Amino acid sequence: MSNTSEDLLFDLTLTDDQRMNRETMQRFSAAEIRDQAAQADKSSVTPAGFYQKTLDLGLTLMPIPEALGGAGVERSPVSNALNAEDLAHGDLSMALGAISPLAFVNTLLDQGSEAQKEKFLPRFCTEEFLAASTALIEPRATFEPTELSTKASRNERGFELNGCKSMVPLGMDAELLLVIAELDETGPAAFIVEGTPEGMTRSAESNMGLRTAQLATLTFDGVQLSAEALLGDRNFDLQRFIDLSRIGLCALAVGTCQAVLDYVKVYCNERIAFGEPITNRQSVAFMIADIAIELEAMRLMTWRAASLAEQGLDFHQQAYLAKVFCAEQAMKIGTDGVQLLGGHGFCCEHPVELWYRNLRAIALLDGTASV
Amino acid sequence: MKVLVTVKRVVDYNVKVRAKADGSDVDLNNVKMAINPFCEIAVEEAVRLKEAGTATEVVVVSVGAKQCQEQIRTALALGADRGIHVETEGAVEPLVVAKLLKGVVEKEEPRLVILGKQSIDGDNNQTGQMLGALTNMPQGTFASEVAIDGDKVNVTREVDAGMQTISLNLPAIVTSDLRLNEPRYASLPNIMKAKKKPLDVFSPADLGVEVTSHITQLSVAPPAERQAGIIVESVEQLVDKLKNEAKVIS
Fold first, then answer.
1. For residue B40, what are the domain limits?
2. Which of A13, A71, A318, B115 has a beta carbon 3.0–4.6 Å from B189's, enabling a disulfide?
3. How many angstroms away from the CA of B186 is the closest CA of chain A?
4. What part of B 31-60 touches A (C-beta under 8 Å)?
5. Which of A252, A244, A245, A246 shows the shortest CA–CA distance to A359?
6. Residue B194's closest chain A neighbor by CA?
7. Per the structure, how many domains does chain B have?
8. Global pTM value
9. How far is CA B151 from CA B1, B131, B171, in A?
């Protein structure tokens, strides 16, 4: 896809790199994610070695400067969105876990200070997978990301953090966390939390879907952070952080909805009722056609927002529109996927019920998948 | 030790191919293409030899149209050091490919050549053996294990009777079987780095080979559709049918 502002044409042709990346991601997704997803969901445990394998793919390594041990490839929201889409074609939950460290790294690159980049980024460039994540959502009614109840206050040693965050991917294991909180009266700020400092507790969540993403609730009760924990030298741009993660969430939704479409197409063509494939019935055919149309619209909106972000242009509105549309359609496509399989849709033998459960989370996950 | 490894651009193994309406060939319009899986195993083996310090350089070669460079680049992303593309037009038969590869072998003088045992499009299983004959190098085909031992390479082969291990003098030719290794995924950083690796393009004339054809493809037709099965009532009936209808037992 065009990613320079000189390209005036609306060009959706992928670059050679993007095509090759997709090939790798799609193969990985089919072999290492899709085949394991159902069992992983049932046990709520990610298959052993899965995150190490995502490390070998170099997903997190890409945007980290070479001087710090990374691949030094300019950060590309478009490529990141494509990667998220392909991973989520295998399983939304495992995909979310796989890209969580990238969300941390991207935000650090985007808004961190040079000293923070030098301190933390090399830790992602070792042979060992480093669990890292971002924490924005709070467990309360009418949660609004711009009105945070998690508070940070300055003191002589640094900061004191109080509050609660929920739906944090990899929340049980993350060694590095970016916690978004209201700083005194100055507005939102992000804090790098290492390990589990005194006063912080982690508890695993039990949710309808996303069972392998290790979603956790984190509580901070008088947690003391050093002055260096505050992300960046300037004010934290919360809106940009949210917008970039909306693109990631949309891409995840697109990937899983594509999986639904691919599955129901085959199933409904092979499923014989009344002596013919059920796709001969218009009520079935129209439903599948609608999924295809909605999905294409989701993808185009996502790519457009990602492309604007990549060009350094304003993408707030596009990211928001894409998120609203993708969240709604993801739920609809998830439901339709189950419906199209009839009684079989209810059985766990088919993956549509898993996709249905996972897709409902797209609407909730702000701030988790920064591209 | 320099290792030469070959890759062929073929239809992706996940694609369900169809014959063209006129039956002249397989329909390749808008079909996903990829490295032949056996070639990918060959690349992986070469890269592992390099990682183990046995090989010093891995050169990857492909014969075919310009688009083959995609597969060469994938092999470079998997860890090969440099690429050679022998650009040809239209279909080339195994003997021509073997002659072109012989030209590359003479130019590069590798100690070891690793090929896939066959490609999943033509399923000919000829190129490696023909290259062996043309270059007069010893060959170890259908390798499930390759071990370099000084001036020799020990190749364990999967044959009908079981496993056979042969010792070949280097330089030698090895063709890979399915169980030789499990190829890695090309990592995203390596895909970027592959762009910077050198890729030379030769024409058949550069290698002194004339592209000729001895084979004419008459027709391509899909396999006959499987007849619906039946459920038998009893073991006796099954045996009776196997004996008298299918005539597979007596």
1. 2-225
2. A71
3. 6
4. 34
5. A252
6. A17
7. 1
8. 0.86
9. 10, 20, 8
